[in-house]
Every structure is written in structure tokens, then in C-alpha cells.
């Protein structure tokens, strides 16, 4: 729910709602947050569009990776209070509890659980929901001067969109407190050093670094990648015996794929594998 750094809650001049551009690039799905005049802050229609695109991608067997980026100079400046409150009037009691699980929270859940590798590329601001969207991805590549910021308490309300779950697991409680309780802004360089993101690069190298990573993921054994992602997520809240049992079920499934057979053949023939994602 965190707002854009430049939004004005309650403003009478609600900006255009913006869009999410969905582009199919071979086996890659590119989702672009397209509202650069508002630092790609997410309006309700944009959040709904993300839910729809990610839900459809989850059952598309021809996809092998997802890329999330922002148009222009910024990734995403959070939820836009102006667009959210444009209708005027006081929402009925329980509005947030009823609505957000199917909107912002659903986006985070889909990114976290979809059995496809998700890569986000971040330049400029990644704020509130935008920050958590980037952190929920499997890999985040950021410009060294990008800014990750959780300004919830600075606005007078507590965090949402997975902030209290994601941050302690990524960087530990002490740094999670710095970001959430003190509102500390973290640069792309520091985010990499903390283990908050995968990689920080010079701004001019962001697109090339992201595409190189996506290329590696697209050429991988997609089913096994998805099952490994599921196993990693499950293991965060399971005992060792439970995690190993889940690994066995995932192994049973991955050993039935064409990519498993190709991996064995490539090993025997001493050549690089040519995985097809099947």
C-alpha cells in the first residue's frame, strides 16, 4: 500500500491509470509497468493487470521465464494513493482486508510461487509495493544507484505486500528493522552487499546484465527450475526431514521430463545440454 514518493494523497487531480505492457518474446514474457510520469506507481487497474498476466503465465507451458521492469527512469514507486482514492468518500469498514489479498498481495504471491523463474530489473526508485515486487522475484538485477525503500511507517501505517516476510529472510532481522522501522533507503550497491538482490551493475549495463541472466534461465531445464523454486520456498518453513521428503517428490517429477533425458545424454556424450523446457 506504500505510496509513490511524489504522490499526494487526496489530490483532486487523479493521474491517468497507466498500463502494464505484456510482450511475448519467444519463451520469455516481459511485463513492463508503464506509467513513467508517476514513476510507475501502481494504480488498481495496473495491479489487476499484473494478477491476470501472472495467472495466465502460470499455466502456459510454452513460457520459460518472466521479466518485470519499469518504463522510463524508475522501476515502481509503490501503490498510488491518488488513483486508489480517486472515487472519493470513505471506504466501508474492512475495505483493505477484503480487497488487498486479491490485488497487491496476490501479485507478490504469484511472483513468489509461480514455477517459472522471475527476474526483475530495477533502475531508479523501488518503493513500498514496488520494492516488495522486486524482492519477491527470484533474481533482481539493479542499477548501482537504484533505491530500495520501504516508507510505510513514514506514512503512518504498518507494512504490507510481504515486507515483514521477505526482508527478514533476505537480510536478517537487524537490517529488516533498519528498512522497516527506520525507513532506511538502500542503494543498489548496498542491496547486493546485503544479499537483498542478485546483482548491482552500472546503470548503462543493466539491460545487458538482465538479458544475459534471462538467457541462461531460458536455456535451463524449466520444469526442474520450477520444482527447485518450489522446494526452496517450502524449505523456508519446513523441518529437514520434511524438506527432504518434498525433494523426493520433486525429483520423481523432474526425472520424468525430456530435459532429464537430455541432461543424461549430454553428460554421457560430453556436450552441453540442449534443454527444451519439457
UniProtKB/TrEMBL annotation:
Q: Which residues form a coiled coil?
A: none
Tell me the protein family, please: Belongs to the enoyl-CoA hydratase/isomerase family.
InterPro entries membership: ClpP/crotonase-like_dom_sf, Enoyl-CoA_hydra/iso, Enoyl-CoA_hydra_C
Q: Which GO terms describe its molecular function?
A: catalytic activity
Gene source species:
Mycolicibacter nonchromogenicus
> What's this protein's name?
Enoyl-CoA hydratase
Amino acid at each position: 500500500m506504500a505510496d509513490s514518493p511524489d504522490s499526494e494523497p487526496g489530490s483532486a487531480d487523479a493521474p491517468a491509470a497507466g498500463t502494464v505492457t505484456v510482450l511475448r518474446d519467444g519463451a520469455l514474457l516481459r511485463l513492463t509497468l508503464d506509467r513513467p510520469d508517476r514513476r510507475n506507481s501502481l494504480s488498481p487497474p495496473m495491479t489487476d493487470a499484473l494478477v491476470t498476466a501472472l495467472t495466465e503465465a502460470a499455466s502456459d507451458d510454452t513460457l520459460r521465464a518472466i521479466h518485470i521492469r519499469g518504463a522510463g527512469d524508475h522501476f515502481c514507486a509503490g501503490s498510488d494513493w491518488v488513483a486508489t482514492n480517486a472515487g472519493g468518500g470513505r471506504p466501508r469498514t474492512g475495505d483493505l482486508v477484503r480487497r488487498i489479498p486479491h490485488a497487491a498481495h496476490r501479485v507478490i504471491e504469484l511472483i513468489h510461487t509461480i514455477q517459472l523463474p522471475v527476474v526483475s530489473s530495477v533502475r531508479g526508485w523501488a518503493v513500498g509495493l514496488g520494492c516488495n515486487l522486486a524482492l519477491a522475484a527470484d533474481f533482481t538485477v539493479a542499477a548501482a544507484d537504484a533505491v530500495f525503500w520501504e516508507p510505510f511507517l513514514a506514512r503512518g501505517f504498518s507494512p504490507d505486500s510481504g515486507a515483514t516476510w521477505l526482508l527478514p529472510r533476505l537480510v536478517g532481522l537487524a537490517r529488516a528493522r533498519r528498512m522497516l522501522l527506520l525507513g532506511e533507503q538502500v542503494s543498489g550497491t548496498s542491496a547486493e552487499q546485503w544479499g537483498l538482490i542478485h546483482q548491482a551493475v552500472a546503470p548503462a549495463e543493466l539491460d545487458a546484465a538482465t538479458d544475459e541472466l534471462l538467457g541462461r534461465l531460458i536455456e535451463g531445464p524449466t520444469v526442474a527450475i520450477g520444482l527447485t523454486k518450489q522446494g526452496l520456498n517450502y524449505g523456508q518453513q519446513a523441518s529437514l526431514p520434511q524438506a527432504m521428503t518434498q525433494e523426493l517428490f520433486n525429483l520423481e517429477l523432474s526425472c520424468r521430463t525430456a530435459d532429464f533425458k537430455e541432461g543424461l545424454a549430454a553428460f554421457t556424450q560430453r556436450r552441453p545440454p540442449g534443454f527444451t523446457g519439457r
